[in-house]
Amino acid sequence: MKRISSELKDAKTIAIGGHVRPDGDCVCSVMALYRYLKKELPEARIDAYLETPPAVFRVLPGIENIKSEFDNKETYDIFFALDCNEERLGEARPLFDRARRRINIDHHISNTGCGDVNVVEPERSSTSELLYELMEPELVDEEIAKAVYIGIAHDTGVFRYSNTSVRTMEIAANLLKFGFDFSGLIEKTFYEKTYVQTQITGRAILESIRFMNNKCIVSVVTRRMMDFYQVGPKDLDGIVNQLQGVKGVECAIFMYEIGTLSYKVSMRSNGLVDVAGVAVKFGGGGHLRAAGCTMNGTCHDNINNLSREIASQLKKAQEQV
Ligand code: 5GP
Ligand code: MN
Question: Considering the chain, what percentage of its residues have pLDDT values greater than 70?
Fold first, then answer.
């Protein structure tokens, strides 16, 4: 597929979905495509499905149109699965399975493509960046530009991670020409944290433990801690990145309890460890330097199991030098 437009012939109903626990890139790519399709096909019905996005994304006008609770048995002409494969679509999965034509746009290296049409480019900073490349430039307006910009900014840690390319910066420059308040949007959606978010981040850092010659760092947030600070999973974003920033650390692991003996795991690598490879072994996925999975068992067992994979990768990396 060269352009989204070439895929839309005769489509009267189109659905868009992203992954469970949607992050900035996921929310923004869904919103950008939603607005874009509404513009390109004003007569068609366009529906966007996502778990309720974090509140900070209310800066995107129209986000209230995203459907988070639904009982829709419709067969759509097209379903766009963004920033994930079919397994992570959550409740929208049956709509994807049933759609007449399924299009998958993603940048996760662990995704082998789940649609009739697949645009999966792991070298792209973000799904938002990839989506922009597939849009007709003359249809991009200020609101679409804003969404694409915020999506790219979130997945690149505000143009800081190694997934930021020359092309990423060229696209960002094109988007800034629309004149929106990029600085305020980044502050509000990326950096600003509530007091309790800051408190639980502090607690997680304080209780972190280094191991494997200080090359790994881990922190665990329990249900009890989340209840105490009155926070939910959406409030824990960014903790793993803080752990990753500790000098000497090659791999950071953060996990929070999602149920009895069940943990959501986030991993970050500073280069030597392929955390997507580690996550895939435990049924998850992601990117070389940022990945995740869900693990069952005590947190100690989970840490042991992850450590074994990480240690073997570190050993291989050391043998190569
Ligand atoms: P995070 O640690 O920020 O939740 O996720 C890091 C990256 O890994 C993101 O690109 C995210 O989409 C991906 N990821 C996190 N958890 C999972 C998972 O359980 N399965 C898959 N396939 N990808 C995940
Ligand atoms: Mn992404």
Answer: 100
Pocket test for ligand 1, best of 27, 51, 87, 108 (most atoms within 8 A of CB): 108
- Which ligand has the minimum distance to the alpha carbon of residue 21? 1
Query: Shortest CA distance to 158 belongs to which of 166, 146, 170, 169?
Result: 169
Cα–Cα distances in angstroms (integers) from residue 185 to residues 11, 63, 149, in the given order: 34, 15, 10
Residues with CB under 5 A from ligand 2 (ion): 25, 83, 127, 155
User: Which pTM was predicted?
Assistant: 0.95
- According to DSSP, residue 67 is labeled B
**Segment 52-97, tens digit of pLDDT:** 999 999 999 999 999 999 888 899 999 999 999 999 999 999 999 9
Q: Which two tokens stand for residue 266?
A: 């986030």
Say if residues 139 and 124 touch (Cβ distance below 8 Å): no
Question: Which of 266, 269, 274 is the best mutation target for the ligand 1 pocket, counting ligand atoms within 8 Å of the beta carbon and taking the most?
Answer: 266
Q: What is the per-residue pLDDT for 318? A: 86
**Buried-exposed string 274-290: b where 16+ CB fall within 10 A, e elsewhere:** bbbbbbbebebbbbbbb
pLDDT at 284: 97
122: how many CB neighbours lie within 10 A of its CB? Answer: 14
The stretch 95-114 carries a mean pLDDT of 97
3-state helix, strand, coil in the chain (%, to 5): 45, 20, 35
List the strands of the sheet with 285-286, edge to edge.
Answer: 209-211, 216-221, 251-259, 262-269, 290-296, 285-286
Spatial distance between the Cα atoms of 89 and 91, rounded to a whole number of angstroms: 6
pLDDT at 138 over 90: yes
Q: How far is Cα 271 from Cα 53, in angstroms, rounded to an integer?
A: 30
